[in-house]
Amino acid sequence: MGRKWNNIKEKKASKDANTSRVYAKFGIEIYVAAKKGEPDPESNRALKVVLERAKTYNVPRAIIDRALEKAKGSSDEIYSELRYEGFGPNGSMVIVDALTNNVNRTAPEVRSAFNKNGGSMGVSGSVSYMFTQTAVIGISGKTEDEVMELLIEADVDVRDIIVEDEDVIVYAEPDQFQALQDAFKAAGITEFNVAEITMLPNNEVDLPADAQAQFEKLIDALEDLEDVQQVYHNVNLQD
């Protein structure tokens, strides 16, 4: 699973270079999550997950507070949650999650990004069956054995634990996300390098250099779209 973690880090590094865009998208995601229930992370699991992920991207408190205040207020702005699936160069697979207040805008823009960058849209289910929803938490300052011991003591089930670049990364079922965080926080760990529920490919593929360059343009084009929140793929990106 090591390359999967690298791909998560690469995605984060890419987004870190476009902070204003990232913050705007988090503002929408926080607002939508808060509207699903109470605008309180202690009673709204979806909101808590988003806020924990926002911390790993260093989203300013002002952005978070503004989104929460909007959710508490009289705003009736409605966003639809959409998922698109498609194929990139050499049969690579891509999942695109979007939040939009204009459904008539989003699909044509996503389709155009695929078509202009060597890809094509697929039908619902054509790609997602090759991915697994997974909770991922990465920390520093502990060994693999220490992490395993504290998770066993906390009775938290995990799929895998790996060590890479001095980070310990834990993969688990999505419903174990909160239990994982609680276990780490009980051990005095409150800072996470990654903390999210994501879609990980069951198998990764390598692309030749020319196809990878085109694939990266596709991913950039998709992530640049206003309505796109997350892009997942199965390509093992090479440096």
TrEMBL record:
Swiss-Prot/TrEMBL keywords: Cytoplasm, DNA-binding, Transcription, Transcription regulation
GO molecular function: DNA binding
Domain of life according to the entry: Bacteria
Cellular component per GO, a single term: cytosol
Gene3D superfamilies: 1.10.10.200, 3.30.70.980
Family according to the record: Belongs to the TACO1 family. YeeN subfamily.
Organism field: Paenibacillus montaniterrae
Protein location: Cytoplasm
Presence of the UniProt keyword Flavoprotein in the record: no
UniProt record, GO biological process: regulation of DNA-templated transcription
Designated name of the protein: Probable transcriptional regulatory protein J40TS1_04740
Residue stretches making up the TACO1/YebC-like N-terminal domain: 3-73
Signal peptide: none
Transmembrane segments: none
UniProt cross-references to Pfam families, sorted A to Z: TACO1_YebC_N (PF20772), Transcrip_reg (PF01709)
Primary location class: cytoplasm
Residues covered by the TACO1/YebC-like second and third domain: 79-235
